[in-house]
Amino acid sequence: MTEAFNLISSYRRNLEMKLDPMRYEHSLSVSYTCMNLAMRYGYDMEKAELAGLLHDCGKRYSDDIILKKCRKHNISFTPEEEAAPAVLHANYGAWLAQNKYGIQDPEILSAILYHTTGRPEMSMLEKIVYIADYIEPRRYKAADLPQMRKLAYIDLDETMYEILKGTLAYLNKKSGKIDPMTLKAFDYYQELHRKSVLAKELND
């Protein structure tokens, strides 16, 4: 426990120096929310805390610089991600977590990689980080936050569906670029939602 605490403390000190104050506070808040969700769903709290703390470790530069760093370090990205570079901090962040922070756990690295787009068949940790990033206490802009904060402690898959649905509606309204992985994630969780609704109707 002491070793894990010392490691987390060193990561916090490092992030506090590298991230702007609001991004750092957001990272702390996401890490605490990840731990809370891990307690609720019986997941490893230390892994959840680490993934939440480091999820935005790559978001210390502008999109243009992050794109250059991805090229420099041969970090893979799709043409769609290049066209919508706001998501690339996740690719760079997963690389940083592994190569600068020494994270070797593939679950943690994957949770960082997919925290912006989601993906089909997400692991529990991936869902925890994705949802915690959306509902953490310092968030305030999304109109559905009260409902999502309640739903997150009831059903992770249903929360994924609702957040992805809202995200796509927002991006379509703003005519923003949508990453294909987000569309795939939405299709997957929409189908889970459909099956869940059908099952409840059959049981009524």
Short summary:
With 204 residues, this protein is mainly α.
Write structural notes for this entry:
The protein has 204 residues and is mostly helical. It has eleven helices and no strands. The protein is globular and about 55 Å long. The model has no long low-confidence stretch (mean pLDDT 94).
SS class: mainly alpha
Number of strands: 0
Low-confidence region ranges: none
Q: What characterizes the major β-sheet?
A: none
Helicity, in percent? Answer: over 70%
* Average of per-residue pLDDT values: 94
Q: H/E series, N to C?
A: HHHHHHHHHHH
**Percent of sequence in beta strands:** under 5%
Distance, first to last CA: 47 Å
Shape: globular
Which characteristics define this entry?
204 residues, mainly alpha, 11 helices
Present the secondary structure layout.
Elements: H1 2-18, H2 21-41, H3 45-54, H4 63-72, H5 79-83, H6 88-99, H7 106-113, H8 124-135, H9 145-151, H10 156-173, H11 180-203
